[in-house]
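Page 37, continued from 36.
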């Protein structure tokens, strides 16, 4: 049987993310920090670490087009890299990886909400770019993690810290509701980011301090009329 060293593809700087079993895991960071890749990796590791356990992960983003071009694409790519079977049912938007079922859904209309409300036996939920949702959406997702068989259940959110006026800042950082585990990563935590990519992002500080603060430092910026959606694909 062919042996495969999974560790060579995992970000060693994200060990706390991989090791967290907290019910709520809040991951913020700058551009090209590799956080979405590591979250995808963590979920894909579960059917390897718990091979005899039926598991379910629900992957959520506000709209389906953005979900397809971000989390779905990343999970599919990483599954291939890890030599895991990933056959997406395009009609029902789910895929099985071993005994783990990945369900992909938007949260943008009545049908989406009904789909979420009807879900059972959910072990993991990953809400990508959580500021796109409202707080009631998040509360709904929080109630769906129940009845699963995993050794731990987890609701993971990730985002760029675009502004302190968002409900995300108030809930998780100002009021610390639920006492979630909070992690921060930047491009400097991404061993696959090139020197040129780092310098290019760092250079934004010369002309746009707000952009620099959010996307290079991974710190809270200020909403200034335009919300940047800067998805950068890392190389591994």
């Amino acid at each position: 049987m062919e042996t495969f060293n999974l560790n060579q593809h995992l970000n060693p700087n994200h060990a706390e993310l991989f090791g967290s079993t907290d019910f709520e895991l809040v991951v913020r960071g700058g551009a090209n920090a590799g956080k979405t890749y590591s979250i995808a990796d963590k979920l894909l590791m579960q059917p390897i670490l718990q091979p005899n356990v039926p598991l379910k992960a629900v992957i959520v983003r506000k709209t389906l087009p953005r979900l397809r071009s971000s989390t779905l694409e990343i999970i599919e790519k990483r599954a291939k890299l890890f030599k895991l079977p990933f056959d997406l049912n395009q009609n029902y938007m789910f895929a099985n990886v071993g005994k783990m079922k990945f369900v992909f859904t938007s949260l943008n209309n009545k049908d989406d909400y009904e789909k979420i409300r009807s879900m059972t036996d959910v072990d993991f939920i990953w809400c990508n770019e959580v500021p796109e949702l409202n707080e009631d959406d998040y509360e709904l997702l929080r109630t769906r993690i129940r009845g699963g068989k995993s050794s731990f259940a987890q609701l993971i959110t990730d985002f760029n810290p675009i502004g302190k006026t968002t409900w995300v800042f108030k809930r998780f950082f100002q009021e610390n509701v639920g006492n979630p585990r909070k992690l921060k990563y930047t491009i400097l935590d991404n061993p696959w980011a090139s020197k040129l990519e780092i310098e290019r992002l760092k250079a934004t500080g010369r002309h746009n301090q707000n952009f620099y603060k959010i996307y290079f430092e991974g710190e809270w910026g200020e909403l200034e009329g335009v919300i940047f959606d800067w998805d950068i694909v890392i190389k591994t």
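Helices lie at 15-19, 35-49, 64-81, 110-117, 135-144, 167-174, 195-202, 209-215. Flag for discussion at group meeting. Confidence is low (pLDDT under 50) at residues 226-236.
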